[in-house]
C-alpha cells in the first residue's frame, strides 16, 4: 500500500544502463532510481515521491520492460498519458523513459506482486568487434555451438539450488529458484539467451551466460554444466558475463497493470 | 583494375554513421573513407592506398554490409583474416570495422560490378522517445497504418522516373530507377522499410520513407503517393526522413566476393 496521502502508479520503463550505476541509489554515481525520482519530483512541483522496482539491475545492464511503482501525493491528479509523457520529458537528457503508466490496483506492489521476470542476454558472435551496438552485446569471437549450449541449458531449467550461479554478494534467503525457461537462439551473427523465472538470484543470468559460453566454445561439455549446478559451489561454474549484454525484457503479474 | 603495382581487396564493412560526415571525404569533418584509408595506410606502414565504395552514404547514415575496394601496394602480402583483423584494429576507436576481406577477382570493382544495393529504414513507432537506440531510428509518435503504407509502396515498386524522390543535389544522369522491392514490416514498436534496387538516387530511400510516413499517419492516401511519383516533381512528395533511421544492409554482385 502507498503511504498515507499518496497514490501509487505502475510504470513500465526502458533504460540504457551505460554509464549508470544500476537501478539502486548509490553514493558513487547516478542510478536509474535517482534519475527517475528526481524527474517524478519535478513533475509534482518538488514534493517528495517514492519508487520501488520489480527487479534491481546492475551497473551497465539495460531494461526494455522494467516495472516500477511510483508513489506521489494524492492531490496530484494526472491522466496516465500525462504521467508517461511528463515523466519522460523530465527524464531528459538521461537514457531513461516511461513507456506506459497506469494507476495501480489496490494492494499492488511492483516487486511483491510480480510472478515472473524475463531477461535476454545478447552475444555478438563473429571475429570482428561490434561497432553498431557495442554497449548492448557481449562480443565472442569463437563460433558458438548452439546445439551444445541448448543441451547444457536443458540441464539447468527447473527447480534447483543455483548456488553455483549466485553472486557471493547475493542477499536472497535461499539459493533455490525455478528457472522456467532458458532458450538459446541464433539469428545470423547474434546469439540470444532468454531466461524466465519467478525471480532470479543476484548475477544469476550473467553467471548462466558465462557458463553457457564455455559450453558453446567447446571448453566444457554440456554435462559439465550439470555437474557445476550439482556442485552448489560458485567456484565450479564459469565466469560472470559482462553486464552490457544483459537486458531485462519484462515483468509479469497475475493481471497486467497496463491493460485497459 | 587497380593501378600499376597495386593489388585490390574487397572489404565488407560496418559502421555507425553518428558523428561522421558520411562515406566521402570532406573538409568539414571526419568521413568513413578518411578513417578507413588512414587505418589501411597504417596497416601498410604508411604507404599510399586508395578506396572506392559500392555506395556513398550521407552523414549520420549507418552501414551493416557496405562493400568497399581497397588498393594496396602489391608487395604487401596478407591473408584475408589479417586484412580483416588488422584493419579493424587500426580503425579503433572509430565505430568502423571490417567484417570480411577477400582478394578481388580480376576486373572486379566495388561500385561498377555491383548489381543491387539494399537499405533498411527503421522507425520506432510509439509515444515515448527512444532511449536504447536513439541514433538508429526515426521516432514517430502517431500509430502507423502498415496496410496503407504497403498499398502505397506497391505503387512505387518497379521501373519509374523517381524525380519526385530525388535530392536536388543528385548527380545521377537519369532519374529512372528500378525499385525491386519496398517491403514494410511491423515488429512490436518497430516498423521497418526494406528497399532494394540496382542503384538508388541521392536521398531516394529517405525521401521514400518520408512520404510513406505521411501515408502511415493518414495524412496521405496511398493513391496520393502514386500521384506524387507521376508528378516527377520533388515538391510534390513528402519530406526527407532523418538520416539516423537509415542503414545500408547489403550489396550484391554476380559472384559473392567473400564466398569460399
From TrEMBL, chains A, B:
Its EC number is 5.4.99.12. GO terms for molecular function: RNA binding; tRNA pseudouridine(38-40) synthase activity. One of its GO terms (biological process) is tRNA pseudouridine synthesis. Keywords: Isomerase, tRNA processing. Residues 153-254 form the Pseudouridine synthase I TruA alpha/beta domain. Substrate binds at residue 119. CDD domains: PseudoU_synth_EcTruA. It comes from the Bacteria. It is an enzyme of class 5 (isomerase). Transmembrane segments: none annotated. Formation of pseudouridine at positions 38, 39 and 40 in the anticodon stem and loop of transfer RNAs. Belongs to the tRNA pseudouridine synthase TruA family. PANTHER family: PSEUDOURIDYLATE SYNTHASE (PTHR11142), TRNA PSEUDOURIDINE SYNTHASE-LIKE 1 (PTHR11142:SF0). This is tRNA pseudouridine synthase A. It comes from Brytella acorum. The lineage of its organism: Bacteria, Pseudomonadati, Pseudomonadota, Alphaproteobacteria, Acetobacterales.
Amino acid at each position: 500500500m502507498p503511504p498515507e496521502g499518496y497514490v501509487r502508479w505502475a510504470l513500465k520503463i526502458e533504460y540504457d544502463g551505460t554509464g549508470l550505476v544500476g537501478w539502486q541509489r548509490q553514493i558513487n554515481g547516478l542510478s536509474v532510481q535517482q534519475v527517475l525520482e528526481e524527474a517524478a519530483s519535478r513533475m509534482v512541483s518538488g514534493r517528495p515521491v517514492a519508487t520501488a522496482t520489480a527487479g534491481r539491475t546492475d551497473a551497465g545492464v539495460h531494461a526494455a520492460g522494467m516495472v516500477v511503482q511510483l508513489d506521489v501525493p494524492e492531490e496530484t491528479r494526472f491522466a496516465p498519458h500525462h504521467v508517461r509523457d511528463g515523466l519522460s520529458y523530465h527524464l531528459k537528457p538521461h537514457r531513461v523513459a516511461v513507456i506506459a503508466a497506469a494507476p495501480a490496483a489496490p494492494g499492488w506492489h511492483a516487486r511483491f506482486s510480480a510472478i515472473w521476470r524475463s531477461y535476454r542476454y545478447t552475444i555478438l558472435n563473429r571475429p570482428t568487434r561490434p561497432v553498431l551496438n557495442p554497449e548492448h552485446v557481449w562480443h565472442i569471437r569463437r563460433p558458438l555451438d548452439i546445439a551444445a549450449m541448448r543441451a547444457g541449458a536443458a540441464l539447468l531449467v527447473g527447480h534447483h539450488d543455483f548456488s553455483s550461479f549466485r553472486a557471493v554478494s547475493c542477499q536472497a534467503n535461499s539459493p533455490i529458484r525455478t528457472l522456467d525457461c532458458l532458450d538459446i537462439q541464433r539469428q545470423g551473427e547474434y546469439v540470444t539467451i532468454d531466461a524466465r523465472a519467478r525471480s532470479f538470484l543476484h548475477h544469476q543470468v550473467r553467471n548462466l551466460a558465462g557458463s553457457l559460453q564455455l559450453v558453446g566454445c567447446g571448453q566444457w561439455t554440456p554435462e559439465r554444466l550439470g555437474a557445476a549446478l550439482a556442485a552448489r559451489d560458485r567456484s565450479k561454474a564459469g565466469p560472470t558475463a559482462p553486464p552490457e549484454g544483459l537486458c531485462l525484457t519484462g515483468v509479469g503479474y497475475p493481471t497486467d497493470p497496463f491493460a485497459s
